[in-house]
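Notebook entry, structure prediction.
Reason for the run: the old model in the group folder had no record of what sequence produced it. Starting over properly, with the input documented here first.
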Amino acid sequence: MTIEFLTSEVFPKLRQVASIVSSKNEAQILSSICFTVKGNTMYMTACDREHWLTIATSLVSADEEGSFCIVATDIVSALNNLGEMKVTMMLNEEKQQAICKYYKGKMAMPYESADEFPRPCSNQPTSEPISVSERAMRVAISKCKIAVGHDILRPILNGMHFVFSGRGMNCMATNINEIVHYAQDNSVSMTQEQESFVLSSKTSGILNAIMSDGSVEIRISGTQVVFKGQNYKLTAVLVEGHYPNTDKVLSQEGSIKGKVNKVELIQALIRATAMGEKTNSLVTFDLIGNELTLSSEDVGYNKSSFETISIQTNEHEDLHVGFNGSVLAELLKNHDEDDIPIELSSPKQPIIIRANDSANGSSLVSMLMPLVTLQQMQ
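New structure, fully documented this time:
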């Protein structure tokens, strides 16, 4: 077999496929990328036993069809710095070598048969297709990934929960201490009433990297989900288990409702966190009238901070409460508004940030549980 291709067309997609290959594998074939040539199109596939990613790319020419495997690190290293160049790849069956010829030289590397390359399970019943805006999926993943957990005992928290209906899409993530819920109306086309699943953070990351601005077709097949876009197909194993009911927590509104300048609050949090305890990044909020005082202290290193900013609120009693300043700053950065709407209730209740973009038909709700302050312990 002899094929010709342009590195500018093939290499960016090759690198995306290679990104899911694990550095350590029990089988040599899992360290390889499977190349399948059909006409003037080449399909590149990688697998890590939980994901199968295939991306199609155009060839200049191919003299026959077939499949073969090359170790991912070999082919990526070979094409890495060739720039925009035409490469001719010839398979030498006698030596089991793939020979890549280019303008000033050639490289040779071993290849092997694709017969042993693992395939995803295909004998499970498949759901009706769900068509979703890729842009909406990308935004949902980027907004919710901040709250994905890293819990060995509760792996369900290590993923994002997607719920699709005729109205739109909802995406949720929680690590118990924080919750992020993103909703996008009019982003889904489907015949069934509702479908839902939990994607691992790795699956979400892969999907986010390969999607563009079109639409993605989603089908659920047993314990797997298949995403099919314009030039890619991703099959992934779903995270199994019952996802926590985050809606129940977020539906409880805080008695204190206010608006604060996002940049001013974030900068104050960063300064307070720098002067506070590094173990929990505790920043204390003292809300009196329309003034919010942020303070922190690190007794061991003789550091402290004290800063007051303005906030617009309804009538309320004075409130003393503490939060992880670093996490709260990141949650605030996740929101696009200049003036952030926040809700507070008591020293034992979370801070909730609710934002609605009626023009775009989207909403973003973030929640962070409080920390116990030194004053509360005394």
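Summary: The domain at 130-248 is CATH 3.10.150.10 (DNA Polymerase III; Chain A, domain 2).
The old model has been moved to the deprecated folder.
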